[in-house]
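Hi all, long-time lurker, first post. I run a small reading group and we've been trying to get comfortable going from sequence to structure in the token notation. Rather than ask abstract questions, I figured I'd post a concrete chain and ask someone more experienced to write out its structure so we can walk through it together at our next meeting. Sequence below, copied exactly:
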Amino acid sequence: MQADTLITGATIITVDGARRVIRDGAVAFTGDTIVAVGKSADLASIDAREVIDGRRFVLTPGFINCHVHVTETLIRGFIPEALPFDEELGEWVIPLYKSHDAAEQAVSAKLAIAAMLRSGTTTFLEAGTVIAFDEVMAAIEDTGIRARNGRWTEDRAWDPSADAEALTRDALSALARDLERYPQDGRRIAAWPNLIGHMTATDALWQGVTALATRTGTGISAHMSPVAGDSEWYLANTGKRPVEHLADLGVLGPHLNLVHMVHIDAREAELVAQSGTHVTHCPGASIRCGYGVGKHGLFPEMAQAGVNIALGTDGADNHDMMRVITLMAALFKDARQDRSLFPAHEVLEMATINGAKVLGMADAIGSIEVGKKADIVAHDTRRPEWQPVNNAVDQLVWSADGRGVHSVWVDGLRVVADFACTMIDEDALYDEGQAMADAVLARSGLPLMSEWPIL
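-- Answer (accepted) --
Happy to help. Here is the structure in token form:
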């Protein structure tokens, strides 16, 4: 057998059907596809153009970030911590967000992608909040990452004088154009018809976008119920809780990814499980924003009912999925005082194969298996947080973080090597990003609020 690349001597966490962890393992790939996985001795006869000594590495599938706002990065650290949820969104995040020009959105996205790649994320699902859609798509293409991207989409006419039907028609037309220009036809970067969610989409938009996703073989992702406000609005305006209302509309199902889902009740969790709807949890955002997930979240119950739970990093503060899996592994152990909840191997599945299921790509990504895409992360164990290496899965979750990611391959292309992006000029990007952040924040008129003086 011949291959382009052969990595030998590594510990491989495959996340394959048997969930094998292979010590002194090897993986070979040709083009964008894995062609062999096994013990190094069994793959020794492979003739590879490039042979990499992997004895210092733990190899994992690339992480899949199922909810990230890639164009929020320029406002990182600027939003005051203690703001109420509605004030934070309405008076800070959204106005700042919508004030970006196309170039600023593109650079913001590249900053987020550099952070994701450097910490082992090979695929992301954008939160549906891109404004300069074509410019951001072009920026993503140049980085080497795999992505499903969605534009800012809502249609509820908060102004009574607005043409409600036109808002819905325009929203659906824009999404249809995106899918035509960037189809999900096997390419690395494609569009998804995502929604902002919460209470911003009318019933007509929910049903229209569901029909669009069904016709095009894509999925839909939408925010729902991080705090009690979504449920209160739906109860007041429809007489039912959000997931119950979506069930009545006929829009639940395996095409749909609902994000946050902290303030739901047992009936909503049951409807999610029965319909095959996916749920993405963002534990870091939930904890930072004080959503009350430890008190209210029904994630153990949803997992027990068979709901496919994936993970996301959410906003600008953190793009390291390894920090997210540690939080997920810890959160409900403490909240329920039950150390058996969400062990390391389960949260690693959430960050890999479960994310692939959300994207409808479990046959192509999410594990290191023959025939799948060569999306592989090499974690350097010659670091103090890794040594000694005893149980690689547990240590990946509890001891390590994204700073130990040495190399990353997407589609067989090495996009991170020796702790640096290969397709992004990081120094130039950081300089450009700082200058743009200064400009965005200066013209916002909002103050930089700090408890300690910044001189």
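A couple of things your group might point at:
Residues 2-61+366-421 form a domain with the Urease, subunit C; domain 1 fold (CATH 2.30.40.10).
The chain has 16 helices and 17 strands.
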